[in-house]
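Exercise: predict the fold of this chain.
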Amino acid sequence: MAALVSGLAAAVLAMASAPAAADDSGQVVLRFETAATYVMYNADEGAKAQNDEFVVPVFVEASKGGPARNVRVVVDASGLTGVARLGENRACAAEGPIYTCKYGDLQNGDGESYRPLTLLGVDGVQPGAAGTVTYTATADNAAPVTGTTRMTVGGPTLSAPGQEKGVSGLAPGTPTNLTPRLANNTRFPATKGVALQVEVSDGVTLTARHSNCFYAGPAPTSAWCTFPTKAAAGAAYRTSAPLVYTLTPPGQLTGEVSYSWSSAPQQPADHTVRGTGAPLTLVPTARQAFDDSHGRVGITTTVQADYRPVTATVRGRVGDTVKVRLGLKDLGPGRIHGSEELGRFEVVPPEGTTVTSIPYEFEGDGGKWACDRPEKPGGAFVCEIGHDSFYDVRHEDGTTAIDFHIRIDRQIPGAKGSIRTYNPYDRTPANDVAVIPLQASPAPFYRPSRHPVVWTAVGALLVVVVAGVRYRRRRRAS
């Protein structure tokens, strides 16, 4: 949402006028922490723009007083006439452009915030058009406080290429370059210059090297760079030099670098480390049909998550149904996170056996089959360990295993099944497969067969025996 990005970028916290800070008198004092200026939307969005992210936070100064009782905030948006329309908003009661928000009782030292306005764009407005929103907070036991925010129309919306060609095989500690690109595919020039925001995912850091860039911390994962270039309507640019990022040891399996552009430059407060090298500039390029708000580069690394099978022997007598714990162990060194594909293991049971169930539990309930059953006899049971059925059997040591209930049908010397593991980050295939041996003993002579034909024959024999016994007893009695 271009309006949201611009609005957040332009927001500068301001303290509303308030009475003197609370002291030992027990007086309750309210204060606002609202934006002094806020970009509602970009001019090129016109009537299509919608933004409901503007917040009005109210705080109670810490004091010996009790909670602020029955806090209300009245927001007057009548100053936005001609620069924004007001859409339906259910957070606060509205009478025309006046919104009343009931915050209730606020505890000492605590705060609360509402989003009172749904701001809609207006066709034909120019960048820089503005109006003022006024808001007043009252409470039963506090003096009222008033604040204002200058609400502006930004512009133009600057575009980026979206998903770019990824980087594969990135080793920990190896610097890699990214050259951000932008396009201004609107009818407005960026009269205030432009700004570049770069973000990297966990396990990746940026190198603080350009003097017109400010970085968040000494091992930064975010950079904010400003350029005086007034990006012309219809023009496209790239940075004069690349930004450098590095995978931090021991690194991650995957990562991402993303960036976006803004035509309302306003440095984030937490970006305090300035680069020491030559400044970046913007170099004109051929016109680009970019239509995304970000540029994104996906990373796959040389770090792996090595899976090996967890196997066991199917051991018992013919006719037994035994539990055999099967699964996998993640040997690392990387760990696959929930947002990535966790992988699977596949089980082919030994000849002469039948898998009768693979029971599981999830959130108090359960089922009979944790794995997908094969369509044809002799096929593999496919166990996706990212599914809910494996939630309770995944452990911190990397082991994921579950009980297969296997019936031994026949004694077949040397019979064995197999278990195979898979994940897209396993680069050691030599240990991906293991055998599942079968050690079957003959059924004891007293164990009845499970076959229905045998049960029928046994039943008939019992009827004959019982009838014979009764016949002999009657003859003796006579």
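Check your answer against the key: The mean pLDDT is 88.
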